[in-house]
Design a protein that fits this description.
The protein has 995 residues and is mainly beta. 10% of the residues lie in helices and 43% in strands. The longest helix has 17 residues.
Amino acid sequence: MKSSSLKWLMAGGVAYSALLAGGVAYAQEETTAVEEVVVTGSRIARPDYIANSPIVSVGQAAIENTGQVTVEKSLSQMPQFTGSFGQGNTGSTSTGLNGGQSYASLRGLGAKRTLILMDGRRLQPSNPDGSVDLNTIPEALIENVEVITGGASTAYGSDATAGVVNFRLKRNFDGIVVDSQYGITEKGDGESFKVSVTAGSAFNDGKGRAVLSVDYTNRDIALQSSRDYFIFRLSTPGLSTIPQGTVLFGANLPTLASVNSVFVGKYGTPALTGNSAGRYTGQIGFNTDQTIFSTAGVPVLNFRDPQTNDAYIVNSNASGTQQQVNFGYDGASMQSDLDRYAVFGKLDYDLTDDLRAFAQFTFTDYESVGITNPTLASNVYGLTVPVSNPFIPNDFRTILASRPTPNANFTFYKALNILGPRIQKYSYTVFQLTGGLSGKVGFKDWTWDAYASYSKAKFDNEQMGGASASAVARLLNSPTGGTEYCSGGWNPFGNLTPSGDCIRYITRRTLNQNELEQRMAEISFQGGLFELPAGEVRFAAGVDYRANEYTFKPDSQLNQPDGTSDVLGYSVLRDAAGSVDTYEAFGELLVPIVKDLPFIEAFNVNLGYRFSDYSSVGAISTYKADFDWTVVQGLRLRGGYNRAIRAPSVGELYAPVSTGSVAIGTAGSANIDGDPCDVRSSFRQGASGAQVKALCLAQGVPTAIIDSYQLGTAQVFALTGGNPDLQEETADTFSIGAVIQSPFESPLLSRMSASIDYYSIKVQDAVGQLPIKNAFQFCFNAGGNNPNFDPNNYYCKLIARNTASGVPLNPVQPLLNLGQFETTGVDFQFDWNFDLMDVGLPENAGSLAINVAIGWLNEFKIQTLPNAPTYDYAGTWGTAVETSAGQAHPEWKSVASATYTNGPASIGLRWRHISEMQNSARIVTPTSTSRGVKAYDIFDLNGRVKLPWDTDLRFGVNNLFDKNPPQAGDTEANYDQQNYDVMGRSYYVGVRKRF
């Protein structure tokens, strides 16, 4: 990370040069008259700029007015998008392949169903699932962003099932532009800085045009601990893996008498209770002074260490007869850092009047560091300790000796704070080279275009602060406590710090490497065919080839010869590789049907077809039929049907199996969160409690602890990976809408426009992971998914348990062709610009521009498996089609702005609204009382001033009234960082200088 002083120096330097460079020629971002243009969603050039699909265009100024230094956060504020994986992803304990990246999730259907284009061409995927990282976009050259809803596979091929985001870059750039922006939160953290230099010029009498842009962006983390609405000591049970360490006895329970002989007879505490067999069912923890305490399902007695955020007592029931010592972590951030360098260059040259060549390259290199809690040796990664360990406190030895099998090893959970936080460093290098020719065919107005592209994305994932399972095991099993391995050995009982030698002996660093390659080639033709009474029939046709390759090389410590992983918290990873080749042919027709009739000034139909042959899934066809109907001047209707597909990506087919910590919530009587076998859960306490108990026993929860079993954590370590047997997704999309231009001639009303569009997207055979949280719920008959409580039910077979402790062992989140997703809704946009003198104010009073964009979500249906129940999650929070797609599905989402302009200055106010959402658990289980998310309204201020010497100044305040984010779900201090402002009030200032 660059220092704050360096950022201020760079920002000041840019501002200084801007203010002192008077009299220098300025850059001209020219808009050249073009007779024909190609609109996003079509391959046909036409003399107007009409889109048949719902389309929204966002200009550079609107993006800048959000005050963000990356485009992902700007897009996610729009009603068409759901906040997804991006700058709010601040750290991970998984070996995933997307850390530090930023995605766009149209309609909440995920980044892999949102096709990202730049000037109508595909970009290099940065993730094995095919998602494009928005950090690779050359933001300094963005002229506008066009967003269309609905399938566009006919025009662009696979992946455009939810829609397309097309970044159109500036053309014919002449001169030099230096642009810089600095931002900071009111808390003094989360600093951001970017500077870009863009230069362009024509040469050789205008035959050639060149542009080069260099961009540097830096964004720092922002800490949760700096905000008072983040709470690190919850009032309800959560994670019970603490630095002091605790013992789980499983089915080998000690006698209650032995426990009370220590607690009552030696410590003078009240007596503890146990089961009907006279056995103790709680856990035992270790104070730093080597005495012991009780925890988990019993009163916490004799806890002598100071209560801290790392270890504090909470009640598990209202009476306080059940308590546990919770673990908390106060070092988390709410914004990921970013250190990015990007270069973009393009050269166009007219070889002849009828032949043009171009060459283009993009290069992005960036790093992001994620920081998360220390290694937690628990659940499937719990430690095994022999009774021969010399550091076992004497008070505990007497308890161990009372077990039915007194010499058996015992399970030990511990938060390894001694190693510090786990740090994941994500390093990316992405480049793309594209070159091509275009020209006139020599027949009518036909033109042709051909290009080829080669690109590569390299990704290094470095993990620091991990713990070696084998090193820990050697220390625990050593008769000396490990003194032969490191100075002083390791006493794990209590919150003790071992020697630096032992810390280094345990600590591990791993490095996983991932590489993606893409090769593309395409040639296409377009032009007019023949005349009909209503106009000219136009066509586009072409063929293309695309190849995607994927290789993954895990660290050898995660890929042991004996088939295990040596790093606690990270599963086995294997080498993986694969490739997919695609050959395609496409055609499109624009057919004028009628014109110049009453209420039909023009009616055109756009037809398209694409044939694709994938080496993975075989031959696939996509097609479309759209229309545009100019009813009268100022009123146009548009709509159509698209059949789209998404073939499984090379990563979805061949990605390695990996593990990650997945939240399932904490069991409670009023929700369906957590492990259903937990005695605190609504499943165990409900009307079907006996059947739930029987199913838990069948899964492996020991009989001895079935009536006292508590998971003691809100997470499980779930397995995910590729599946070479996946088939393609298919999507049917419908849209119909209207575009209205003001019919009034009055200056006050003449510059009004509005659009309204209905959309319907239905994705079948959707490729995705079945969330393990749902698997737990559905296995135990939530929503009627297992009415017979059958242990062989599909969902139940995803869950395996440790037969000694009952703890889930790496439950599986399979990647499958699931059931289907369906979403419908309406988009509305209204724009109105007028001069204030038109309402009676003086001529120099300035002007006002009003913009309103509203999204109404009618349905968001998910069917997890064929023939399974379908649930409509519209208006809910908590369930996503996949982990990076976003779990907020508000019924209403809107952005409205009002901008006042007078001469060289303008100031604007933006209002962002997200409606209230209920918890998605209530859709599956209507009796659930799980908390949803309150309505959210936030205001931003932005301003611009044109200064002398061709200099522009912009500034703003986001979250003007410093509104706290709403809590999401039942867990205290849990906020949806992708959809809500968790940073608090923040400020930014930017300056642009043209030379």
